[in-house]
Amino acid sequence: MSDDLSRLTSSAYSQALEVIAAVEPRIAQATRQELADQRASLKLIASENYASPAVLMTMGTWFSDKYAEGTVGHRFYAGCQNVDTVESLAAEHARELFGAEYAYVQPHSGIDANLVAFWSILAHRVESPALERLGAKNVSELTEADWESLRKELGNQRLLGMSLDAGGHLTHGFRPNISGKMFHQQQYGTDPATGLLDYDAVAAKAREFKPLVLVAGYSAYPRRVDFAKMREIADEVGATLMVDMAHFAGLVAGKVFTGNEDPVPHAHVVTTTTHKSLRGPRGGMVLATEEYAPSVDRGCPMVLGGPLSHVMAAKAVALAEARQDSFRGYAQQVADNAQSLAQGFLSRGADLVTGGTDNHLVLLDVSRFGLTGRQAESALLDAGVVTNRNSVPNDPNGAWYTSGIRLGTPALTTRGFGHDEFDRVAELIVDVLSSTQPGTTKAGGPSKASYVLGDGVADKVRAASAELLDKHPLYPGLELS
Ligand code: PLP
What we know:
With 481 residues, the chain is α/β, with parallel strands linked by helices. The protein has 19 helices and 17 strands. Strand 2 (70-71) and strand 3 (74-75) form a beta hairpin. The protein binds pyridoxal-5'-phosphate (PLP). Residues 47, 109-111, 114, 169, 171, 217, 219, 244, 246-247, 273, 284 line the site of pyridoxal-5'-phosphate.
């Protein structure tokens, strides 16, 4: 940020906090504290980032007050001309940035984007042909008997997605999630020996299961995916390929993932969040081919209500930022830094799932330290290192305690961390984990949650982190009065 922008930002936020404090001072105080806490910690959560002040400020406006159900130029409320401007611009930036035929920017989150995608695929592949067969224009024209049989048909479809412990997301068919209930689901995993995706195994499963939807994409898989191969598999079995690029959208936008690693030219439907590596506001988005556009466009009223116009405006600002050349440099640095972090661990004898990374995250298997993911996560937090525990493939500790820690580079890269800093981060993490012992339960038995961190380690690591963080301040120049 230039000095002028820093001054403006400082005064805008200081004044906004005064306005908030006049109504509920505890919220103003919590907001100040959150900034202080974020500034003082090593944020390694792979799904988080720091959006620019321009993106953050765009969310705090009167667009929040406007209802705008419908689509651009076709709203169920009057007075939506400015929302139309915002939504059109966000969609245009998304189309241009990703080279997509169509972009739908209304989903409030990644889960919403996936729900829109699922129901759009069902509408396009199942509902529309059924209506045509029955000679009806829409479901309201169906008799009760026809509607009953259509509902059964809609509820009788199959989805194949990546399993949670191989790195997939809850919404990719996990039983407790609605995706695992609305579809008959099966999951593909990774090769037990290498931890890598085995495309032949995915193809074999797809041939046997014949899914309507093949989902690719992940939350915790530290490798790139060949989406051309996934499309071949989908085509062979007549499935729609849906890619959830929530985690790596920034690497697609920044042209680190190109060719077969760019999902947009290969998938029928691509979903994403806007707040992870893409560095925008919290939200979701769906990109689609022309063929799927009409059904995706019906996200509202199919699954969504009124769009969050203030967030769509912030998406437009973030996407405009991602179209600048500097974003490509950022995205490449995110991937380079993940390499540095991985090498930092490997050179200190730590175990990584798949033996490394080629995206923005690493998955550290903490079993070698004699810890569960839960113990490691808590000990690291004591030392000011913010991570999240994560299952590893076939995790003996299950999804709650886990055996892994997932670490991502997007946030600290935004702060300006480079190779040397990420190597030092790996060293500090290994220091904490090697100084942590599993604790015991109240009854004296082995515990998967409690832990004992060696004397003075947390303070030492906090001091070492502070040195790194001071060199790369968050929102440099932003001073709250
Ligand atoms: N899809 C993937 C791959 C994710 O990793 C996540 C979030 O972690 C989501 C979807 C859901 O996003 P949200 O939390 O915005 O609903």
